[in-house]
Write a structure and sequence with these properties.
Elements lengths: L5 E5 L5 H13 L3 E7 L3 H15 L3 E15 L5 E13 L7
Parallel strand pairs: 1-2
Antiparallel strand pairs: 2-4, 3-4
């Protein structure tokens, strides 16, 4: 699967524009991009998706948004903790492929 039509970007602590640049590269090649984030990085992933689709690549749409919860991390008190997750799929609009 070296030639995947989908790029996965894990959003974390880096500045927002780093993720915007990483997202625009595969989109200009006609690939889908999946932004994944957990916890506090969720708001940054949403910001990245909005900046990419509204300012940088207007020929891209948010295709799907999946939210969930990961359980199993043990906190300092020994109880399991829940961490929220999000996956945002951005795809080029149909018919807007560059040749």
């Amino acid at each position: 699967m070296s030639e995947s039509s989908e790029a996965v970007i894990l959003v974390g602590r880096k500045p927002t524009m780093n993720y915007v640049l990483a997202t625009t590269m595969p989109l200009t090649e006609g690939k889908k991009v999946v932004l994944k984030a957990r916890g506090r990085a969720i708001s940054k992933a949403v910001d990245v998706a909005q900046v990419v689709t509204r300012r940088f690549i207007k020929e891209a749409d948010i295709e799907s948004i999946n939210i969930g919860t990961e359980e199993g991390r043990v906190g300092q008190d020994g109880r399991p903790r829940s961490v929220s997750t999000i996956e945002i799929t951005i795809a080029p609009k149909k018919g807007s492929k560059k040749k």
